[in-house]
């Protein structure tokens, strides 16, 4: 039977192709996580706004994004946005979808991180007559960052593992390449297993990296100036 | 195509999605308990087996696991249909996350409870069944609820191995009619409704199970 035994020759043949597709996966994750941090912070800050309607709008938006599948959101952005005259490449669409989806999750992390800063810090900023912007930038956020690192890192790793879904809108990332190789050669065992191992390796490395960052991070926070 | 027709086709897909959830959820719960208990109380090979299972299914992507089960297992002579492959992949994936929930909830039961059941001469299985689990179960419900919603969302992946679930129907309808706005809008809404219903069930379950345990203070 074809493909029953592991062929090392075939493995070495397909490895370079899969590794070059890994660049696309990593790029999508990197851009996606930058966008997610930005969106998450914006959502978290709006959730603290003075206007009740604004707060509940963001609450339901976050709830909606979190309880619908990423795959459908990707399809929605990819097929519906052109109707409004915005067409984007699969990569950009994917980054936007990942960024929004995980931005919604991160907003909850950031919100609890900001809430975790002591009340006295807010009062002291008020006493020093700092503006809202200065209070967040110089006092609150620098102290809020460290406790948020582990949860943020987990979500970024989760995002990394969801990038294969971008193959559904024809982005040539690792899994898509593996599937193409598999269907061309009628050998799925090696490409799929390789992709699985690569994901496992990257995830473990990233988890270790996040642990390092958390340990090295100064306890008193960092200046955001 | 008329809006009513679109909705009725999508509802058929939603039924398939709900069916998959209904089958994968018990599997995930069973995996979570079996491997969670193995991880906590298992001897040398069992504990390591549980760790490998958890790390493997949490460390790789759900879509890869699905493809692996659907495309690679047949090469070993284990041919399974798409539906079974989907249920197994999702059940094992969510179950791996559930394992940690079970472990966390059981280890957060106060140590005195274990000691008291030893003092009262309970066998290990009795103390687990009668003393520990009833208390641990309440703590498991909220994270299990979150995982159930994750499962609902993950079912959209099975559309990629040709199961005619909600996402699959949406995709083929969209390719056919090009009314993408309505179709994907309705689909997002349907998933949202399914997820919220599940969340409601779990909130009810939590209330039921926490009765008489004196948790959460006076209300």
TrEMBL record, chain A:
Domain ABC transmembrane type-1: 22-210
Transmembrane helix among keywords: yes
Entry's Gene Ontology BP terms: amino acid transport
SUPFAM superfamilies found in the cross-reference section: MetI-like (SSF161098)
Cellular component terms per the entry's GO annotation: ATP-binding cassette (ABC) transporter complex
A Pfam family annotated for this UniProt entry: BPD_transp_1
Similarity comment text for this entry: Belongs to the binding-protein-dependent transport system permease family. HisMQ subfamily.
Principal cellular location given in the protein's record: membrane
Entry annotated with the keyword NAD: no
Family annotation (CDD domains): TM_PBP2
Subcellular localization(s) per the UniProt record: Cell inner membrane; Cell membrane
Keywords on record: Amino-acid transport, Cell membrane, Membrane, Transmembrane, Transmembrane helix, Transport
GO molecular function, one term: transmembrane transporter activity
Highest taxon listed in the record's lineage: Bacteria
Protein name stated in the entry: Polar amino acid transport system permease protein
PROSITE patterns: ABC_TM1
Transmembrane segments: 20-45, 57-80, 86-105, 188-210
Species assigned in the record: Marinomonas aquiplantarum
Topology in the lipid bilayer: Multi-pass membrane protein
InterPro entries per the UniProt record, alphabetical: AA_ABC_transptr_permease_3TM, ArtM/GltK/GlnP/TcyL/YhdX-like, Ectoine_EhuD, MetI-like, MetI-like_sf
Automatic annotation (TrEMBL), chain B:
Family to which this protein belongs: Belongs to the binding-protein-dependent transport system permease family. HisMQ subfamily.
Annotated membrane topology: Multi-pass membrane protein
Transmembrane segments: 20-38, 50-70, 76-97, 136-163, 183-205
Domain annotation ABC transmembrane type-1: ranges: 14-199
CDD domains: TM_PBP2
Lineage per the UniProt record: Bacteria, Pseudomonadati, Pseudomonadota, Gammaproteobacteria, Oceanospirillales
Keywords (A to Z) from UniProt: Amino-acid transport, Cell membrane, Membrane, Transmembrane, Transmembrane helix, Transport
GO biological process annotation, one example: amino acid transport
Compartments, record wording: Cell inner membrane; Cell membrane
Pfam family, one: BPD_transp_1
Name this protein carries in UniProt: Amino acid ABC transporter membrane protein 1 (PAAT family)
Record NCBIfam families: ectoine_ehuC, HEQRo_perm_3TM
GO molecular function: transmembrane transporter activity
One GO CC term, this protein: ATP-binding cassette (ABC) transporter complex
Cited InterPro entries: AA_ABC_transptr_permease_3TM, ArtM/GltK/GlnP/TcyL/YhdX-like, Ectoine_EhuC, MetI-like, MetI-like_sf
């Amino acid at each position: 039977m074809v493909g029953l035994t592991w062929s090392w020759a075939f493995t070495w043949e397909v490895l370079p192709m899969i590794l070059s597709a890994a660049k696309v996966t990593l790029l999508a994750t990197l851009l996606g996580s930058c966008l997610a941090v930005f969106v998450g912070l914006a959502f978290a800050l709006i959730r603290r706004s003075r206007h009740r309607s604004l707060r509940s709008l963001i609450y339901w938006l976050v709830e909606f994004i979190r309880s619908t599948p990423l795959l459908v959101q990707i399809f929605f952005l990819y097929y519906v946005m052109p109707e409004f005259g915005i067409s984007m490449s699969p990569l950009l669409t994917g980054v936007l979808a990942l960024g929004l989806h995980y931005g919604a999750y991160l907003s909850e992390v950031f919100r609890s991180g900001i809430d975790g800063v002591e009340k006295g810090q807010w009062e002291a900023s008020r006493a020093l007559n700092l503006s809202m912007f200065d209070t967040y930038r110089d006092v609150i956020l620098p102290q809020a960052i460290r406790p948020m690192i582990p949860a943020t890192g987990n979500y970024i790793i989760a995002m990394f593992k969801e990038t294969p879904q971008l193959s559904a809108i024809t982005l040539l990332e690792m899994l898509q390449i593996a599937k193409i190789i598999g269907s061309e050669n009628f050998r799925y065992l090696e490409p799929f297993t390789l992709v699985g191992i690569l994901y496992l390796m990257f995830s473990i490395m990233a988890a270790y990296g996040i642990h390092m960052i958390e340990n090295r991070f100064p306890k008193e926070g960092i200046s955001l100036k | 195509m008329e809006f009513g027709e679109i909705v009725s086709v999508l509802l058929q897909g939603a039924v398939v999605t709900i069916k998959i959830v209904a089958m994968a959820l018990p599997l995930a719960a069973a995996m979570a308990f079996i491997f969670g208990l193995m991880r906590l109380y298992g001897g040398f090979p069992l504990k390591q087996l549980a760790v490998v299972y958890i790390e493997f299914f949490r460390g790789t992507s759900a879509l890869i696991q699905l493809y692996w089960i659907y495309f690679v297992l047949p090469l070993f002579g284990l041919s399974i249909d798409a539906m079974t492959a989907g249920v197994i992949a999702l059940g094992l994936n969510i179950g791996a996350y559930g394992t940690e929930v079970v472990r966390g909830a059981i280890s957060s039961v106060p140590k005195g409870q274990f000691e008291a059941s030893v003092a009262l001469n309970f066998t290990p299985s009795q103390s687990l069944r009668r003393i520990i689990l009833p208390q641990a179960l309440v703590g498991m419900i909220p994270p299990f609820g979150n995982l159930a919603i994750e499962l609902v969302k993950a079912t959209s992946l099975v559309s990629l191995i040709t199961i005619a679930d909600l996402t699959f129907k949406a995709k083929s309808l969209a390719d056919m009619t090009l009314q993408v706005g309505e179709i994907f809008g309705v689909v997002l809404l349907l998933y949202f409704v399914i997820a919220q219903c599940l969340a409601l069930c779990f909130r009810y379950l939590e209330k039921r199970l926490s009765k008489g345990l004196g948790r959460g203070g006076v209300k």
